[in-house]
Amino acid sequence: MKIPRLTNIRRLAKSFSPAKRDVILRHAMKHVRSQAIREGTWFTELILAHINRLQERLANGTFDARHAHLPPDERRKRIIAEDSWHAATAGALGATGSNAGGILSLVTDGLAAPVGIPAAALSMIAEAAYTALVHVNLVCELATIYGVPFHADEQDDVVSIFSVALGVEQDATPTQKPRVKKKGSPAELLAGVITSDEKDVGKRVGNQLLEESVMRNIGPLVGMVVSARWNYQATKRIGASAMAHIAKRRVDAHLKAQP
């Protein structure tokens, strides 16, 4: 598997559209609320909001289908490849603090800053939410391409795709707080933010995404490489998990359509 190198990451970071980044960041930051983060519901809220937005766009004809002129399988390959690099670039930008200005502009443009979240952890949490939205959009777009789009009452299916890709067991013990004790470490900052200790898999996935984002971004240079590579590989895994789930959805849809 091709993994992004530091030189590629720097090149992509320079060419990545600030306007596109800000649109995604704005949607993602709407779910970075103190209560949602503390209770672990931010991830499922993000999924539901995106499914509803996608369904609205499909209904009114404003859905911007990527590579619509290509057959479904070719579209799948290109979209997963694009989003893998997109997520890698987002991880690199987040690790270097490049999103800090965008986050500040959102806060001063009407979105309230989450109360009780340390500034040092906010950019890392925003990176997790941003990348999660890229991945949720990927899953939903793939399902739409193959004619089995997700609906609002199927957000648990999307959560299941993530849990398989990220190794979050359906019946695992609740997510624990990070165990790193070093004073002032990113993990210590996040340990004071996440207070939920839930068995709900959606909450565990959300908590894990936040924890891993913080742990990947301990140092600017190391964090940039690690975060970019993790996001790249995670996108590939999520794409594969989504396709396995979509194959089952297509079979189920075919069986239901039988007389």
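[next item in queue]
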Amino acid sequence: MIQQPGGAGPAQQPTCATRSQHPDHAEASERHPQRAKSPNVPVQPSDGLAVLAAHIDESAVRLSAGFRVYGLAAVLTSTSEHARIVSALHELRLPGRTFLHHYDETPERRCQIAEAVANLALDGAVILTEATTDQHQERARAHLLTQMLPRLQYVEQVSNVVIESRAGSDKHDRRVRDRLRRSRHITADLRVNHARKQTDPLLWIPDFVVGAWFSARYHQEAAPWATLSASHYIEVTGAQDGLR
């Protein structure tokens, strides 16, 4: 969802409550102790049983004169936790809503959702951003996917990637995937598919994480992002506002 940068002064924002670390967070750190030390150290599965999945969604903010910052977030989860995570996410929906969407929520609801996501058993997240223009956003997305997919396979040891579907535009992502396979930057062992938010609730998490980051940086709404980043390892890289 494209966002507009905020106005001159930040409004009073609700503060997300401080909470202790959920036991599942410690378990995630024990599964991947290297991630807390350095994002560039390959993660080695400790027992060979955990299968990591990554769910990817996008966000962007318009700056000025046709410039913008575009971002992709990948949230990592263990398939053994999916049923519990999905159950918790379903409980966060408002009546009549089929999925969670950061852009549609009020500041108070964003704090509530951030608290809930902070207590989920996630295995970290990666946000890649790039300064671009209105005309070249698709090029920026392809560039970020070219960085993201090899990292997910070789550094994070992900087996399955699910990208939020953009209907007819999914063909652009498939071209990137196929090009990376032909050039041997990824292998066919990394499954890369698309799904809609309505059918895969795990896509709600990267939507919320990347939306919270953009809101904290550009809209003076810091509390949800502070809650998320205090509870989960989230790496953010890129030229966030080099075109401002």
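[queue empty]
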